[in-house]
Amino acid sequence: MKAQLFDAALFAKGITKREYSTFANIPYDTVAGWKKRGIAPDHALIILKNMPLNLNKKHIARLKRAPNQYRENAETKNYKILQAAFWGKNVTVETILAQVEEKNPQYLKPIFKNVFYKDIISLLGIETIIALKPVYAKIMEKKDAEFWEFLAKRYKDKQ
What is the mean pLDDT of residues 68-96? Predict the structure, then answer.
């Protein structure tokens, strides 16, 4: 089994690796080493399943704050990527997004030229990618425009 699955199970149950190693009578270095190897033994989840739930106030607070914390980090990262596309220009993220919605070529060209396509999709969203389909031929080379038009068509067909 993948070590990431084991780590997620530990996190969901509110148990640290040290607590797990103490309960299972496995050296802590061995448990920590599973992450480095990328593989945890199959019996690790069975032991974890039989472990008593030990949620104290610290664990409950950590579980409550985790989803928002990761979402905020992702949004900050995406905005930093967007700002990097306009490096050296004094432009705010809000201005960039507003100009993208207005299909302004001066703002679209740097994004499509300097940002990786998966980041563009996460930044702008699928609806915007589909809405920009008529503009692609005007702002980029034919090969790139065909790629984005195909991508927009593919997502539109899925909807």
Answer: 67
Q: Which residues contact 158 (CB under 8 A, 6 or more apart)?
A: none
Cα 58 to the center of its chain, rounded Å: 26
Separation CA 143–CA 134 (nearest Å): 15
pLDDT above 90 covers a percentage of the chain that reads: 0
Tokens of 132: 């920009």
What does the alpha-carbon distance between residue 56 and residue 95 come to, in Å, rounded to a whole number?
Answer: 45
Contact of 121 with 154, CB cutoff 8 Å: no
**If we measure between CA atoms, which residue out of 79, 146, 75, 137 comes closest to residue 108?**
137
Residue whose tokens read 């190897």: 37
Instruction: Compute the half-sphere exposure of residue 61: CA atoms within 13 Å on the CB side of its CA.
Output: 3
* pTM of structure: 0.49
